[in-house]
C-alpha cells in the first residue's frame, strides 16, 4: 500500500509527519527506525503522528528515531500545529499530547516569510520524581553543582513534561562538545541517576535577552534543536537572572526560536515560537514491515529557511562549533 508522508522541521529538528485515522495502522517503532536511517534519504529525528482526538482538535504522538515514544516535542508540535490549522482552516487549535492538551496558534513570521507557530509548553515541574531522577535524598536540583557530573557546571533538572538536565556553561563547552557528549551518553545508559534517560542541554548566555542552547536528546543524540529543551533552558536562564526579559531569543545549531516565559500565581506559562517548515512530500510503499520510497516532491520553503541559518551562523560564529 502507498501512503503520503511530509518531511518537516522546526529549527532544524527534522521529522516525518503522517496523518492517520487509525492509531494502530502500522508498526510505528519499526517504521520510524527505517524512516530515520541516515542513509535513507537523509533520515530524520523521529515520526510525528497526527491522529483523531475526542477531546481536542487533533492528537499528536511522537516516535523517536530509536522507536521509543516521547511525551512531547515542542519543535514537532509547531509543525503539527501548522498541519492541523491549515487542514481545519483555523488560526489556533488545541492539540492532545501524552501529558496535556496544548494551545497552538499561527504567529507573525520570526524571519522573512517563514511559516511560524506558537505552542504552549506544559506542564512544568522541578520535582525530581517527575523526570524521573534520583540524586542523594534531594527532591529538586536547582542551579546546583553536581560533583559526579562536573566540578564547575551548575545544573537544573526540570520536566516540561519531557525530562531535561540544563547546564549553564562557558563558551568553551559549546566550542568543544566532548564533555556534554560523555555526560549525556552516561546518563542515557544504565546509571543510578536517570533510570529512563534524560535530555541534556548546555546553555551559553549571550546577552540579557539571548542564549545559545545545544541539546543531546534522549533516544536521538545531538540534534539541531529540541523545542522543550530550548523552552526549559529559557525558563532556567530567566529564573537565575541570566536574562531579564519575558521574550527570550534562543539560538541553536539548527536556527533560532523565541521563548516566552511568564509566571502567574506561582504557575509557569511557557510559549515556544518558531518556524514550521515543510521541506518535501513523500510517497512511501508499506508492505508489512517492508518499506520503500517511491517518490519525493520538494517544496521551496527550505530556501527561505536557509537565510535564517545564515543569520544564526553570523550571530554565533565566535563560539559555536
Q: Could you explain the architecture of this structure?
A:
One of its GO terms (molecular function) is diaminopimelate epimerase activity. Pathway: Amino-acid biosynthesis; L-lysine biosynthesis via DAP pathway; DL-2,6-diaminopimelate from LL-2,6-diaminopimelate: step 1/1. With 321 residues, the chain is an alpha+beta fold. Helix content is 21%, strand content 40%. It is globular and about 55 Å long.
CATH superfamily of the largest domain: Diaminopimelate Epimerase, Chain A, domain 1
- Average pLDDT over all residues: 96
What structural category do the secondary elements indicate? alpha+beta
SSE order: EEHEEEHEEEEEEHHEEEHEEEEEH
Site (Could be important to modulate the pK values of the two catalytic cysteine residues): 164, 217
Catalytic activity: (2S,6S)-2,6-diaminopimelate = meso-2,6-diaminopimelate
Subunit structure: Homodimer.
Function: Catalyzes the stereoinversion of LL-2,6-diaminopimelate (L,L-DAP) to meso-diaminopimelate (meso-DAP), a precursor of L-lysine and an essential component of the bacterial peptidoglycan.
